Amino acid sequence: MEGLIQPRGILSLPTKPIVAARTLLPPSPALKQRLFTRNLPPLSFSSNAPTKVQSFHRNPLTISISHKERINRGFICKAEAAAAASGEGDSPNIFGVEVTTLKKIIPLGLMFFCILFNYTILRDTKDVLVVTAKGSSAEIIPFLKTWVNLPMAIGFMLLYTKLSNVLSKKALFYTVIIPFIAYFGAFGFVMYPLSNMIHPEALADKLLATLGPRFMGPLAILRIWSFCLFYVMAELWGSVVVSVLFWGFANQITTVDEAKKFYPLFGLGANVALIFSGRTVKYFSNMRKNLGPGVDGWAVSLKAMMSIVVGMGLAICFLYWWVNRYVPLPTRSKKKKVKPQMGMMESLKFLVSSPYIRDLATLVVAYGISINLVEVTWKSKLKAQFPSPNEYSAFMGDFSTCTGIATFTMMLLSQYVFNKYGWGVAAKITPTVLLLTGVAFFSLILFGGPFAPLVAKLGMTPLLAAVYVGALQNIFSKSAKYSLFDPCKEMAYIPLDEDTKVKGKAAIDVVCNPLGKSGGALIQQFMILTFGSLASSTPYLGVILLGIVTAWLAAAKSLEGQFNTLMSEEELEKEMERAASLKIPVVSSEEAASGESTSQLPETSSPTSI
């Protein structure tokens, strides 16, 4: 009796009538309410001298309480009291958010700000380098994505999978991000100033004269190989640092409830970074234009921008160190199936065999193909409208700023979408937006002639109108991706076990993302070779876009059901572990039927006197 009364004031009456004598204190108001609202006859408690309770005698005015009912009532009583007691001693709140949560969310938001600030600078710079370089054009991009970016991404995934089995998470993070920081610093201060010496332009000219103009794209990769390497490293920054390192770390230190509330808001600070980084690119573009003759303005601005990238990278490392040192990790369910360590091929086979991972991969690959079907065509129009590197870079700076503003607005609406409509609807918005805007862009390309008088009244040429419509398509698609698609994708990883989470993210984010872009590039190359030009293949590209988005929506619907099932299991396991940690007795139905519990009642449902 003493053992039952002592913990947190919980009173549990014994089922056997004779107990040892103990001193009883006056009941609390909550206990009186619990007892007397069930129509039980009153108990006689005395606050005077200690009362010896020898037994409970039967009273004619009693009610019948069966064995099963008694167990259920006892469990509910203890569970409610324990749950109320577990809420005691909560950490202080600021604006309704616990301080412990803020210590995680604020550094994560700053990390995301720095990562996307760098990615915007790198993304805009890589396009200017490879598109406007001598002997190159926008046609190099499909070859880069297919024959350079994809193999390097696969190689990185294999290396990352191997390192994840031998290194700790902290060591893995630093091992991956530090080479990126060192390379971008070396490119701005060493490789680009020496580009005229390290680029085999003479060899490329000889090969071009021998093979013919149709090999201009592949030969451009050889001609400007250091720029192409920068292009690939910038692409990998988006896949590796954003998707694998940051989101993997965020999933590690946040709970599901925190993710639902704050993941969409991470992009608020990140898109402020897009706005400021776009202004930074625009500033350096204007600075290059205002420099005197004979000065390599691009080299000057490149050194400044790469210095910013290195500084932001070091800030990311510091924030990661601070969170690991001062923020406690959340408790996870310990009843997950433990996966053994697997080799690289075994990991790939395991991931391919998982329907959950396959659906996630379908989402990522479909986005990459869909956006690439429009993006490369748009960049070719952009090069035709802005052939100068200064003008091209300045337009990309404005494009990044507009993307940040649009995404910031979408982020403000995303939490409402998640709360009101749930994960499934949020996951389907991005493919819907991309489909609608893509159709508008392709329609303008196909029917540019009839629209010429209309756009002339607006003071634009059909080419400039196509550039602006393509820019709007990219802005709306990317804002939907950052505000809804990425949070949905990352939330889907949370209920997975650690082995699937780590290796699944490496396979999906590092391989499937470039695979989608390379798949779109392959489709475009095939269409151009078959129909003669990109414009002639536009109707077929529109049909392909429709089919890919349809498969995307089907995968999102399938993943929605699997995600909800896993989340239900996760919540159930957490409740069971919490009950065990609070020592809430749980009596199975078999024990109740056989009378094997500590407190037993007769098998018959005869009345029990209190």
UniProtKB/TrEMBL annotation:
<feature type="transmembrane region" description="Helical">
    <location>
        <begin position="262"/>
        <end position="284"/>
    </location>
</feature>
<feature type="transmembrane region" description="Helical">
    <location>
        <begin position="224"/>
        <end position="250"/>
    </location>
</feature>
<dbReference type="GO" id="GO:0005524">
    <property type="term" value="F:ATP binding"/>
</dbReference>
<keyword id="KW-0934">Plastid</keyword>
<dbReference type="Pfam" id="PF03219">
    <property type="entry name" value="TLC"/>
</dbReference>
<feature type="transmembrane region" description="Helical">
    <location>
        <begin position="526"/>
        <end position="555"/>
    </location>
</feature>
<feature type="transmembrane region" description="Helical">
    <location>
        <begin position="304"/>
        <end position="327"/>
    </location>
</feature>
<keyword id="KW-0150">Chloroplast</keyword>
<dbReference type="GO" id="GO:0031969">
    <property type="term" value="C:chloroplast membrane"/>
</dbReference>
<feature type="transmembrane region" description="Helical">
    <location>
        <begin position="394"/>
        <end position="413"/>
    </location>
</feature>
<keyword id="KW-0813">Transport</keyword>
<keyword id="KW-0472">Membrane</keyword>
<keyword id="KW-1133">Transmembrane helix</keyword>
<feature type="transmembrane region" description="Helical">
    <location>
        <begin position="142"/>
        <end position="160"/>
    </location>
</feature>
<feature type="region of interest" description="Disordered">
    <location>
        <begin position="585"/>
        <end position="610"/>
    </location>
</feature>
<dbReference type="GO" id="GO:0005471">
    <property type="term" value="F:ATP:ADP antiporter activity"/>
</dbReference>
<feature type="transmembrane region" description="Helical">
    <location>
        <begin position="425"/>
        <end position="448"/>
    </location>
</feature>
<keyword id="KW-0547">Nucleotide-binding</keyword>
<feature type="transmembrane region" description="Helical">
    <location>
        <begin position="172"/>
        <end position="192"/>
    </location>
</feature>
<feature type="compositionally biased region" description="Polar residues">
    <location>
        <begin position="600"/>
        <end position="610"/>
    </location>
</feature>
<feature type="transmembrane region" description="Helical">
    <location>
        <begin position="105"/>
        <end position="122"/>
    </location>
</feature>
<keyword id="KW-0812">Transmembrane</keyword>
<feature type="compositionally biased region" description="Low complexity">
    <location>
        <begin position="588"/>
        <end position="599"/>
    </location>
</feature>
<comment type="similarity">
    <text>Belongs to the ADP/ATP translocase tlc family.</text>
</comment>
<dbReference type="InterPro" id="IPR004667">
    <property type="entry name" value="ADP_ATP_car_bac_type"/>
</dbReference>
<keyword id="KW-0067">ATP-binding</keyword>
<feature type="transmembrane region" description="Helical">
    <location>
        <begin position="348"/>
        <end position="374"/>
    </location>
</feature>
<protein>
    <recommendedName>
        <fullName>ADP,ATP carrier protein</fullName>
    </recommendedName>
</protein>
<feature type="transmembrane region" description="Helical">
    <location>
        <begin position="454"/>
        <end position="476"/>
    </location>
</feature>
